[in-house]
Amino acid sequence: MKIDILTIFPEMFESVLHASILGRAQENGLLEVRCTDIRPFSAMKHKNTDDYPFGGGAGMVMMAQPIHDAMQSVTGEGFQGKRIYLGPRGRTLTTEKARALSREDHLVLLCGHYEGVDQRVLDMCIDEEISIGDYILTGGELAAMVLVDCVSRFIPGVLGSAESPEDESFSEGLLEYPQYTRPAVWEGMSVPDVLLSGHHANIQKWRREQSLLVTQRMRPELLETAPLSEKDRMFLREAEACS
Ligand code: 4GS
User: Fold this and answer.
1) Best mutation site among 60, 86, 109, 134 for ligand 1, i.e. most ligand atoms within 8 A of its Cβ?
2) Contact (Cβ atoms closer than 8 angstroms) between residue 36 and residue 4
3) What domains, with CATH codes, occur in the chain?
4) I need a labelling partner for 29 at 20 to 30 A (CA). Which of 77, 157, 209, 224 fits?
């Protein structure tokens, strides 16, 4: 997959994109991320990318022209893919959305700054606005990095063969069960016996129940849409009665 990022701060991406799993994915040719600085595309004498908002008000607005020209430079003729603006008005990024985007050949991510972007260039050049959550960032760059990271997990081969993108919180609609590693006793606290038992079926049952309990406690609304068996529902009813 190819991902182009349009930003006025390309240097923010260097370390994030080259370390760890994303770095390996790019070395293996599974992922190709390119950052394009919007500023050189500005037709203004001083290469400005923002201006005062029509109608007044605080802050600045990113101008249409530099963004449009930067977008043209990475899409060209016959672009096949999705052009995404990261901003708080968009639909919130979810696992489903990340999985769907991972099937695209080419993504272009536009990072906003200041009070936003001239609406006309969004109307002309953007297919979809996506938010990473209901809070305000100082810029869209961190949101773009979050999107690149969670989309990349779903590209076949990006995770090592032992890891699965589906074997985590949310993928089964539930939160993750607790994990433990050595030592078996640390600071007087033991690992749950069942995990040391070697009894695979009991371990699976325990993990499922822990997932159900932590979801009920922390994110009960997820239980309304998670695929639950009759056994799961019975367990949750009993847990509720005991609490
Ligand atoms: C988000 C967000 C965001 C909005 C960028 C104000 C600077 C800022 N982007 N998900 N201007 N939440 N962007 O807060 O994507």
Assistant:
1) 86
2) yes
3) 2-152 (3.40.1280.10), 168-242 (1.10.1270.20)
4) 77
